[in-house]
Amino acid sequence: MKNIYIGLFLFFILLSHALTDEITFEISKNWNQIKTMSGTFQQTDLEGNVVSGKFYFLKPYQSKFEYDNQPENIITNESLLRIVDSEGYQIDSYPIGNNIIKKILSHEININEVFDIRDIRENSEFYELDLFIDREDETGRAILYFDKNTLDLKKWELIDEFENKTVLEFTKIKKNIFISEKLFVVKYKQN
């Protein structure tokens, strides 16, 4: 009798692993077909403050977040996150390193190879992928929410090493439309 329980337990573990692989394969496949994406976003910070704006993704690595009624915007590329003013002049910059955003916006991605998957949850609307870039030191943690029907990225929660969370929800999504590289140009003031 004990062998039957062990056999059933192993069967369910293998079935669960196979379903996880299938879900991440389909999400990766869909995400890799998207070369550009734009829409609107709502961002919630640690204190619960909500700001909104427009976002633009141009693979590989480029993103822009234009905040409504804010003096600063964000532009990323493969190596830097830049804070720019409303005219596009750089205010500050930070190295991206091995960041989740960099991985997500790479040319192509295989979620199972790039990330260490902590958990996959499913509800009536979303697949929630809870993942790390490196589980050993638990850096680069995020929870990505993909629509169950379209497999579109609808939300991300980025969690730093101090458990600080930034949440972005994406709406009015347009995929594979023309987005000019000029949108990601950063200007520099001459001294």
Structure description:
- With 191 residues, the chain is an alpha+beta fold.
- The protein has a single domain, classed as outer membrane lipoprotein receptor (LolB), chain A (Clam).
- The protein has 3 helices and 11 strands, in the order αββββββααβββββ.
- It has helices spanning 2-32, 100-104, 111-114; strands spanning 36-44, 50-58, 62-67, 72-76, 80-85, 90-95, 116-122, 126-132, 141-147, 153-159, 165-175.
- Strands 6-5-4-3-2-1-11-10-9-8-7 form an 11-stranded antiparallel β-sheet.
- The radius of gyration is 19 Å and the shape is globular.
- It starts with a helix and ends in a 16-residue tail after the last strand.
- Residues 7-18 have low confidence and may be disordered.
Structural descriptors:
single chain; eleven-stranded antiparallel sheet; 42% strand; outer membrane lipoprotein receptor (LolB), chain A; 11 strands; 3 helices; alpha+beta; 191 residues
Number of strands: 11
CATH homologous superfamily, by name?
Lipoprotein localisation LolA/LolB/LppX
Biggest β-sheet: count, sense, barrel?
11 strands, antiparallel
CATH class: Mainly Beta
Classify the beta-strand content into a percent band.
Answer: 35-45%
Our measurement of the CA-to-CA distance between the termini, rounded to an integer number of angstroms, reads 80 Å
- SSE pattern: HEEEEEEHHEEEEE
Q: Enter the CATH topology name.
A: outer membrane lipoprotein receptor (LolB), chain A
Oligomeric state: single chain
Mean of residue pLDDT?
Answer: 87
In the residues, how many domains can be counted?
A: 1
Structural class: alpha+beta
Calculate Rg over CA atoms.
Answer: 19 Å
Low-confidence stretches: 7-18
Q: What is the helix tally?
A: 3
What is the CATH architecture term? Answer: Clam
Helical percent range? 10-25%
Shape: globular
